Amino acid sequence: MADMGDMRGRVALVMGGGAGTGRATALAFAREGARVAIADINEEGARETLSLVEELGAEGLAVRADMASGADIQATLARVRERFGSLHMVSNNAALGAPNKPLTEITEQEYDRCMGVTLRGVWLCMKYQLPLIEASGGGAIVNIASVSGLRGEALQSAYAAAKGGVITLSKAAAVEYAKRGVRVNTVCPGGINSGGMAFYLDKMPAELRQKTLDAHAMGRLAEPGEIADAVVYLCSARASFITGHDLVVDGGVLVRSNVIDL
Prior knowledge:
The chain is of the alpha/beta class. The protein has helices at residues 20-31, 43-55, 70-84, 108-118, 120-135, 148-151, 157-177, 195-202, 206-214, 224-235; strands at residues 11-15, 35-40, 60-64, 89-92, 139-144, 182-189, 246-249. The chain has one domain: 3-Layer(aba) Sandwich (Rossmann fold). It is 46% helix and 15% strand. It has a seven-stranded parallel β-sheet, with helices on both faces. Strand 1, helix 1 and strand 2 (35-40) form a beta-alpha-beta unit. It is globular, with a radius of gyration of 18 Å. The mean pLDDT is 93.
C-alpha cells in the first residue's frame, strides 16, 4: 500500500472487521501504524483478525458486537476508550442483505432485518462514534455503501434502499460535523471477491455468474484490499478536505455500457 500519511498513535475502529473487506481494512490501518479495534458479531473472526493485526506489529483489540444493537456499540466504544483513550478513524463495514426476490415478495421480516443492520446499524454507530471522535480531537468516518445504493438493484430493493440511506445519512452527518473536526464519507464498491460474494455467486447458474463479472467494465471483482485502500485514504491526512463524498470503487460498473461490449 502507498503511504497514506502518518497514522502512528491514532486509533482506528472497524465495525464488521471479522472477515472480508472489514478484515482487509483492519490490516490496512495496522500497516499504516494505527492501533486497531475490531468489532464483529462473529467473535472468533474478530480474534483471528486481531492476530493478523498483531503479526504486523500493531496494537489491537477484538470485541464482539452486533451492529443492530445500540448497547453493543456503546459497549464497544467503552472498551476502545478504556484501552486506547481515544478514537480517530472508523470504518462501518457490517451489512446484512436480503434474499434475491422481487420487491413484492420480500417479507416484512426480511426487509426489517436488512434495514436494522445495514441502515439503522450505521446510524447507531455514528450516533455513538461521533462524540468520541470529536472529543479525541477529530478524525474521519467511512461508511461502506454500494453502487446498489446509487442506482438501485433489481431483486435487491431492500438492500439498495438501505445502502442509499447510508449514502444520504453520511452526507447529513458530514454537514453536521464539518466544523467540528469529523469528516464523513462513503465508499461505494461493486462486487467484491469475498466470502459473502462467493456465497451469492455459488447459488447462481454459471451464465449468471459470468454476467455478474461482466457487469464490471474491468471484467473482475474487487479484491478486499482494494476497497480497504480507499477507506484508509479517506481517513488519511491526504483526504483532509474531503467530506460528504461517495467514492465509487466499482471496476467500472456504473460506466459500463449494456450495449457496446469492449
